[in-house]
Amino acid sequence: QVQLVESGGGLVQAGGSLRLSCAASERTFGNYAVGWFRQAPGKEREFVAGISWSGGTTSYADSVKGRFTISRDNAKNTVYLQINSLKPEDTAVYYCAGRPLTIRLDGWAYSYWGQGTQVTVSS
Predict the structure, then answer these.
(1) Within 10 A of 89 (CB to CB), how many other CB atoms are there?
(2) From residue 16, how far is each of 47, 49, 74, 87, 91 by CA, in Å?
């Protein structure tokens, strides 16, 4: 079973940047697509970005295009989410999730989830 651990969250001012990491416990992680999701208080969980197993395909929510960049280093079993130009509305718990091979936008399609990392953006 793949275990995922997120890190890199924190408190940052609007306009700032963070890099979130999602580290996997298994070398077979290279066979998994990874999605980043977020959930703000009182709101539903939403898809933010995804990357295919090879890194050759990425997908972004419209609200983060041009500000967020997802990447992966399979040699390190890690997926990254670079977040730039942060806005207060980006405040949420960010989760990474894994599923075989291809990106899906629906959270239910993912089998493995991390515990989340809090991102708080002050105005």
Answers:
(1) 11
(2) 21, 19, 27, 8, 12
Neighbouring-strand partners of residue 29: none
DSSP 8-state class, residue 13: E
Output helix, strand, coil percentages for the chain, rounded to the nearest 5: 10, 50, 40
Instruction: Give which of 67, 74, 60, 66 is closest to 105, Cα–Cα.
Output: 60
Pairing of strands 92-100, 117-122: antiparallel
Give the C-alpha separation, 79 to 34, whole Å. 7
pLDDT in tens, 67-108: 999 999 999 999 999 999 999 999 999 999 999 989 999 999
Q: What is the spatial distance between Cα 23 and Cα 5, in angstroms, rounded to a whole number? A: 5
The residues near 74 (Cβ < 8 Å, ≥ 6 apart) are 29, 30, 55
Torsion sign (Cα): 103, 91, 114, 26: positive
